[in-house]
Structure formats: C-alpha cells, structure tokens
Structure prediction request, 841 residues.
Amino acid sequence: MSTVNYDELVSKWQEYYKQQPGSRMFPHLFKPITIRKVKIPNRIKYAATEDNFNTHDGFVTDKDVAYIRERARGLVGGICTIQGVYMDPKGEGKGYVGQAAAWDDKFIPGLKRLADVIHEEGAIANIQLMHCGRVGGVELDYCVGPSDVPQRLRVLKPVKEMSKEEIKTSIKQHAEAARRGLEAGYDIIEISGIVGYLISNFLSSYTNKRTDEYGGDIENRCRYMVEVIEAVRDVVGKDVPIFIRLCAEELLDEMGGNTPEECMVTYRMAEKAGVDCISVTQGWQESLHSVITRDIPQGHWLYNAKRAKQHVKVPISQAYRLFKPEMADKAIGEGIIDIWEMCRPMIADPELPKKALEGRLEDIRYCIACNLCLARLFRDAPITCAVNPLVGHEWDERWKVKPAEKKKKVMVVGGGPAGLQCALVAAQRGHEVHLYEMRNVLGGQVVYASKGPYGEDELYGIIEWLKRQCDKAGVKFHMNTYVTPELIETEKPDVVVIATGAKFVVPKVPGSDLPHVVLAPDVLEGRVETGDRVVMWGGRGDGVVAALYLATKGKKVTIITKDRKPGVDVNPSYIWRYMLKISQTGGKVYRFADVESIEEGRVIVKGAYGVRIPVPADTVVVSMREPRTELVEAAKKLCGEVHVIGDALVPRRLHNAIHDGYRIGLRI
Amino acid sequence: MSFNPEEELRRLLARFDLLAGIVRATWYEWRQAALEFARPGTKPLDLVLRAWEIVGHDTAMSYFMALRKNSPTFLEDLANLIVMSSRAMGEDAFAYKGENPNEVFVQWNECPWPEFARRYKADMEEDVLGCDRWFQTVIEDVNKHFGTKIKLETLKAIPRGDPICLRRLTMEG
Prediction:
C-alpha cells in the first residue's frame, strides 16, 4: 500500500511552486487536486506509455526503472503512470513484447521498484491495467475479444470470441492485478479502455456482436467495463482513486462503430460504476482518421473533453496533441479539463513540466509528432525518440553528457540537425565549438521537410531548439561560410565533424539535362515553378514531401520509385495518409520502376515486368540524394580526428542525423 | 530511343498471362504436394476447401480497406471488388444490379481455372466448391466485420458445364 503522506507532499511542492515563475505563468497547472484520499500537488500526468523495455516474460528492467525515474522527476509532483500491465498468464492481453506483467505476485517486486522511484522523485504513482484485446496476443497466434470480428490490420492476430467463463476470469484478473498494484505501493489504479483494447472492444458496436448480456445495446456492451470497475473497487476500497481511459469518439463510422453519443453513455456508466477520473481519448488503431499526427492542430481534441464535461462530474484529463503548457493551463482554467496528460511530449522532454514551472519555456524540447516511438513499438523494438537520443539509455552512464577530459577546438561543418546536435553536446562537454553553415539558414533537410503541407512546419521546432541550446552552450556560429581545406588549415581545429548532409543529384539518362528537369528543394523553396503534370523521380521521404506539396497546389504528380512502395523510409503512421492525399488529387505511383529517358512533355519509365510506360510530364522533379563528401579526404589529411555524421555518411532520416550527432558529440 | 506503346502493352500482357498461369499451376502443384504429405485418408476436397477458406480470409481483409459501411452502394461496391479480384486472376467478369433492390449479380463469361483443374486431373466439382468456399468466406468475414447480412448464391458454374458462372448477392436491411 502507498505510504505517501499526501498533505506533506502537497505542502512541500506548493512551497516550492511559490518560488518558481511558472506557478504564476501557469496558475492552473500548479494547483493541487484531491481525488478520494489522494492529494495530487499539480495537474500534470505522465500518461501510460508502452516502451518495450521490459523482459519478454513481463519482468521490470533497470532500463524501465531509469526511464520512469526521469519522467517522475520531471513531473515536479504530478501523476506518473507506468505502462499498462497485462494480467493473464497466457499473454492473451499482452500487446507489446516488452510489456510489464501483473498476472502473478512474482511481478510485485519489479512493479514496486517503479512505484518506489516515482515516490522518491515526489510524484504520485499510477499503475495502468491494460488487456489489449484485439490488439493483444502479441506472442500468440490469436488474440481475444467479445466477438470474432475479423481484423482490419494484418499486423493484428485473428480474434477468438471469449466465453462467459473467460470474461469472468478476465474481470477477476483485473481485480488481482489491482491488488498487486496496491501491494507494490501505487496511489492510483487506472484501467485502459481505449484504441481497440479489450474494454473498448466490448463497448464498441464494431467489435461486440454478442447476443448475451455482454452484447446488444450500449448498456449491455458496457457491462464488462462496469464489472471490471466494480471488481477493482472491491479490491482497492473507498480511498484509492480509480481512473479510466475511454474513447469519446471512436472514429470508426466506416466499420459501424459507436456514435459519439454512445461514447458518452460509456462515460456515464463508468462514472456510475465508480471511477474517479476519466481520460478522454479518441480514435482506434483501426480507425481511418488522423488523431495524433501533425495534420491535427494542437488542442484540436479539446472539444471532446468539453463534451465529456457535459456528461460526467468526475475530473477529466486529456492528452493527444496537447503539447504546450500554456494551452493546457488555459484549458484547465476554462474548466475544459482538470488534468493535463502527456505521453509523447514527455518522451521527447522528460523535464517539460519542470521547465514550465521554472519559466524556462525556451528550453522545452517539444515532440515533433514524428511517431518514431510508436513505429518502433509496433515492430517489437524498444522505443526511441527522434529528438531525445537519451530515451532508453537513461540507465547508462556512457550516454550522459559529462565534461570532456581534454578541451578541444571542434569545427562542425554543416548546420543541419546532425551538426547542431553534435555541436550542442560537444559544447556542453566543454569543448570550443565552431559551427559552419554555407547557407544563411540552419536546418539542412529539415528546412525542406518543414515546407510540406499538413503541419510539417512543426518539424522546424527542433532546429530552433537546437540553435537556442547551442547559443546557451557557447557554440560559435559562422553562417554563409563555405568550409574549404584552406579554412581548416587556417583554423587548425583538433577535431573536424563533417555534417555537410546530402546533395540532390540528377542521374544521367537521356534527356536528364533538359531545362524542365529540376531539383526538389528548388521546388519546395519556391525557386522553381512546375507545370501541371509532374513526374517525381525518387520516392523516398524527400520525394513524398515534395509530391505532397505539389499535390496540394493542384498538380498531378506521378511518383517513380525503385522501391516496393513510396516512402519506405517514412513513418507508417504518416505515409498512408500522405499517399491517400496524393492519390485523391490524381497522383499516381510506379513502383519497382525507374526513369529510362526524358523527353519534352513526357518521361519513359521502365517499370515492373520490364515494360516501358510513357508518362506525361511538364516538369521532372528529382528527389534523390547522395552524401556530400568533398571535404572528407582533405579534412583527414589536415586534422587528426575527423568524424562524418548524418546524411554526409548515408542519407537517412531526421532521427538518424540527431542520434549520430549526439553519439559523436559524446565521443569527441 | 524509339518507343512503341502497342509493343509494350503486348509484352506486358504476355508476361501477365505467364504470371497468372504460373499462379494457377502452382496452386495445383502445391495441392499435389500437400496430398502426398497429408494424413492417410485425407480427401482432396477437404484440403482444397480449407485452402480456399484461408485465401478467402485474406481476400476479405483486403476488401475491408475498400469498403465503407455507410456507403449507400455497399453491396455493389463489394460485387465490384469481387469482379476486380476475378479480372486480376485472368477471368472475364462483370457485375450488374438485379431487379430487386439489395440484389446484385456477378457474371463470369470466361474462367481459366477449370482448364488447369483438368490439366492436373482435379475433380471439376472441387473447382466449383472451392470457388464457392472462397466467396462464402469473404462474405462471412465482411458480415462479421461490418455487421451486415449479405448472402451469396451460386446459380451457374462453368465447371459444371454451364456457359457462364453466375452468383447472386443479396443484402438484408
């Protein structure tokens, strides 16, 4: 049982808050709230985040403990939720290979380690119970649900309909896991009922086709959830809060899911059954609609929290595209939400709430919603973060920025993400760092990528953050400066870091020197106008962004890619909607294909089956890149320590560049 | 470089025909191998029906992405997907609306599968029932996924000596 003295905890934090500018900037965020007997010092909650850091048989690892400690520390007294735990020995409810378990008392010590570090950092410990339902069975050849409704996504397992006995067992397993949570010392028990997990499967008319008392109308479909809540309440007693996460809007109209009104019935039923706080979510993994990608404006989903407030009296919390403290503070002040939840923003910056409290908004490293974390999770890999290279390495001292043993003069050539990140870490370690950029703008490929439509400008935030931090760390910037061997010779650095990125190149084919053959960055930066019919030569991320940009301008774009599909390097949560948008404007794709020749008005494409296809084209946009390595050999002759990072090594994605920069910054 | 569109299309069709032939031949060659390794007494028909059932589940999953429950032309959309699949397999098929509302027919004028069944000495009835099992599995999965009540009946079948294959799709409600 939790031994936290809530009165002491709240008064300790409130005293601290008073000394911090953030408590005046964000008066609502740093106001305490009491739920049952638990007094919570502020209104910030780290939401349950699967991370795949634990053993495949469900035991908590040092890696997860260190990861959670960082988040708990950053919460400055808020609620820290551990990842959802699965509760059955077979793993039917297990949705992620590294998911922690709570199906036996043998897991209590590991769960206690997490609760202990949360308490040590002065935060409130919340354990989430998560049966993944039709998203579960990750290591089985099936999963379970209320009905055997076939899956929409091939990655998910075939669903086996649960018998009544299995339903009762599952309810009991929730109660048993709740008991283990209490014994491990958690202050709050949370139940997950979202995105396609078991409770949501029972609630939804899409996945619940039962004809017994657990199916039929919405009241009956709520029965499983109600019995779970009641069983957990029986175990935890009247003092411990029970939270639940529920969909306010499933976004499953195409499959016959619940209406938003039915979702509100589930809220009322949950409240009646005894939950003390509802986390408002929207969308399912099987939904066809964007929910957490950049095309959804920040704060967009607050309307669902507003709706929830009209239906229930218990406190409401919300995450999902609500990244900024000013926005969350305003929402609390206006009575839309009571608690601000964060998942990805605190993966990107575990100190986000602390920085807000200290009034250091310029230091917050915002999530860019790239969903690399999710992409890795769904591929059974531990999560990482594009902008926070330390994720998953919090336990490892070798990954921490520590003063260098010997101070060196470092010349970083290139002001893209790799160069900036490397310069930052090197400068933080005490080196004298000079960063050279040949253009008058920092960001490298991010400059082009952020020109894409649908909120891609958000990407540039990481460049601005890196610049600010580099300035603070004392990096000296040399803009509009092209680094030559002579400059290296003159400056005599101890270390040269080549972060010159990649250059766009036109492969040599008949007609590739014609004037209507142009480069993607020239199009994205408005230096070149294209005709109405465009061939995008190259279908990696650069080509997809440029194609999307042109499609929104009404151009008919045909992507020619050698790959099995366009955007093989683009995050799965983005590429399908990008391609949908391109196809909706008349765009086409030739895969396993290449340009054979270019003529006035058309391109001859060599496609699959060795067949040649004439594709009309007023403009051919080239989006293929190769490393810019002109300086490497000269630098090696002139300097004893040379590193090549980012796209200058191999053209890849933003996270590769940042992680390269971080690692080399540590090594110098 | 000279470019002759007709020659390119002819080449593409030739290669596509070859591919479709390989697919059908492979189907019967796998059937033969599976029967050789099957438990004694396994009936070819049971094996084939199970195989088409597996294919049906996979086909249904690909249809889910293309169908919308709230579409007023849901049944026609489904029939057109069946037509698309059939054409991709080298069959000559088309869909048309029936006299009754909520009734759509799919008609096949040509189908290369019976020829392969003959070539590999498979029973013609196996061809009909296998095809049926495929479609019935698709319909069953679509009904479960979208909560619809669609039925499919086989009215005519080329492998049974009819000049065409004809299937009727009806939807309740």
Summary: Helices of chain B lie at 5-37, 44-64, 74-88, 113-119, 124-146. The radius of gyration of chain B is 18 Å. Chain B touches chain A through 23 residues (CB under 8 Å).
